[in-house]
C-alpha cells in the first residue's frame, strides 16, 4: 500500500516533523490545551485526565493508544499510572519520535488501522481520540478493539462529527455508535460539543498569541492551519452546534 494514498498521511508526516522542531508549537499546545501532547485536534488535558478513572489500580496494566502520534499523551498517562504503554500510528515520523522519547515499559509500532494486529485480551484500556475515522470499516475496527480488550476492559473514544465525518442528529446516531451496537458493545456517552467550542476559542487565542514566534521559525503555514481549524468558533455557539458535534464514549467489554 502506498501510504500517501491514506487519509491525511503526507500532511501528518509534515506535521510531526514540525512538532518535533517548533518551540512556538510547544508553547501553543501548553497554552491551548494545558499540556503539550503535540495535538492536532480537539483534546485538551481535561479530556485526557478523564481516562485516568478507568485505569485499574494494579501493577500489570497495559494501555493502547490507537493513532498515538508521537506518544506524548501516552507518556502523560504512564506518568500518572505507571502503566505499560503501547501505541501505533501510520506516521513513521511520529513513531520515530515516540520510540526516542519513551523507552521504559513502552512499545510503539508503525501500523495502519485494520492491518496491524495485537494478541487477544491484551489491554486494560484502549484509547482512540479522533482516529477511528481512518478505519476503512468502522464496524470491523470496533470488532478488533473488542478482541484486544481484556474482559472488563474499557474502550475510551473521542469522536467528532461535522468535519471529517458528516453530522448526524446526536451521540446515538453516529457511525461510531452504530458500529458499537453492531458489535454488541454497550456504551456511556458525554456530549462535549459546547466544551469543544470553548476549547476552540482558547486554541485560536493561543495561536494568535504565538503568531510572531511561528513566523520567526518560518512556520507561517502551521499558524494559518491553526487559525483555519478555529474559524468555526467565531460564530455563535448555537450555529456551531448545528454543524458540529463532539462526544466522549466509554465502552466496557
In short:
With 253 residues, this protein is of the alpha/beta class.
Structure commentary:
This protein has helices at residues 9-21, 23-33, 45-49, 72-81, 92-101, 138-148, 175-182, 193-209, 211-217, 220-229, 237-243; strands at 62-66, 84-89, 106-110, 123-129, 149-161, 187-191, 245-252. Helix 2 (23-33) packs antiparallel against helix 8, helix 6 (138-148) crosses helix 7 and helix 8 runs antiparallel to helix 10. It has one domain (3-196, 233-252): Rossmann fold. Strand 1 (62-66), helix 4 and strand 2 form a beta-alpha-beta unit. The protein has 11 helices and 7 strands.
Keywords:
19% strand, alpha/beta, 11 helices, Rossmann fold, 253 residues
